[in-house]
Amino acid sequence: MTSAPAASPSLHPRLGPREFSRYEDVRAALREPALWPVAPLKPNPFKIPDQAAQQALRAQILDRFSPLRMAAWQSRMEEIEVDVPARGPVDLVADFIESWCLQAAGIVTEAPPEDWNSLVAEARMVSHAAAEPLDENLRQWATQADNVLAGYFANSTLPMPGPTFVAISRTVACLLANGWAVLLGYPEEREKLRTAPGLLPKAVEEMLRLAAIPDMVFRHASAAVTVAGAPIAADERIVLRLASANRDPAVFADPNRFDPLRRGPAHLSLGFGLHACAGSALIRMVMATATSIFLSRFGSLALRAPIEWEGGSGFRTPRRLLVG
Fold it and tell me: Which of 82, 294, 257 is nearest to 176 (CA)?
């Protein structure tokens, strides 16, 4: 077995605010109701969130992303056609992942194909800002892009249609690139997944653990609390290192190894507790569907060039994955 390339070699700068990186500490912080998501560069004139409104929105998302509706989406995604070069190496990112995820985003949000290219241009700006959250200019451009997407989807019946389009067209695309970069380092495991598709859900969880996006999230205390024995003052901002927590050797044996049969605590890539990602089931379904296609079409291929990475302190992702 060969060792997998690092899925997301984060720059991990010191950010000034207090940081939590151990698994148990990060999970405790994610479970704490007084710690709310906040953007890294926004000032802190913090008002107590409307928890009832937050939970109502969460309920809408869960209702919209019902198992029946996701099964219908999955059936359509399985039929997505992506032409790849007939000869020579294939760049999994440019030749397959980006096109496939864009079509999948169109299926879920019902955006017409003629608008996809303009919408994904805005989604890329949001993704660039997430990859480098400490860049004030990128944050401002991302805010403009969010506004454009909100305006476009103003009449959509889908809860949070703009963020959903970004999540599928860009975030999942980066997750797949990171996850497949890991899989390409494990030919024996790839072959097992090809012949035993029942292992795919566990494989997706391992890809999510090793390919956390973002690498870190920020929280703001709406009240004084104690997390993992550490007092946090009201209005204090903290940083939670998801990527580090997901590779905590005290929790995950041989933490950098891809193991589709791994047992033990769940990864934290999609959050935990009150603020866990409400679209997590959708993300898992899209990743599993795309990875099944990857295994059937490209699973026997191998990397033909070193991985080129792009991104920043928020996360990094392969610029290209050249296989043949």
Answer: 294
pTM of the predicted protein model:
0.90
At residue 86, what is the residue type? A
pLDDT tens, residue by residue, 12-32: 445 556 899 999 999 999 999
Q: Are 21 and 196 in contact (CB under 8 A)?
A: no
The alpha carbon of residue 83 and the mean position of all alpha carbons in its chain are separated, in whole angstroms, by 25
Q: Domain ranges in the chain?
A: 69-218+276-323
Q: At what angle do helices 98-109 and 67-77 cross, to 10 degrees?
A: 140
Token pair for residue 8?
A: 């997301």
**3-class DSSP assignment, residue 237:** strand
Query: Which of the following CATH numbers is that of domain 69-218+276-323: 3.10.20.740, 1.10.630.10, 3.40.980.10, 3.40.50.80?
Result: 1.10.630.10
Find the Cα–Cα–Cα–Cα dihedral 78, 80, 84, 86, rounded to 10°. Answer: 70
In tens, the pLDDT along 179-228 reads: 999 999 999 999 999 989 899 999 999 999 999 899 999 998 989 999 98
- Nearest to residue 164, comparing CAs of 212, 111, 236, 232? 111
Give the Cα separation of 230 and 233 in Å (integer). 10
User: Are the C-beta atoms of residues 186 and 207 closer than 8 Å to each other?
Assistant: no
Contacts of 288 (CB under 8 A, 6+ apart): 200, 201, 204
Distance separating alpha carbons of residues 111 and 154, to the nearest angstrom: 12
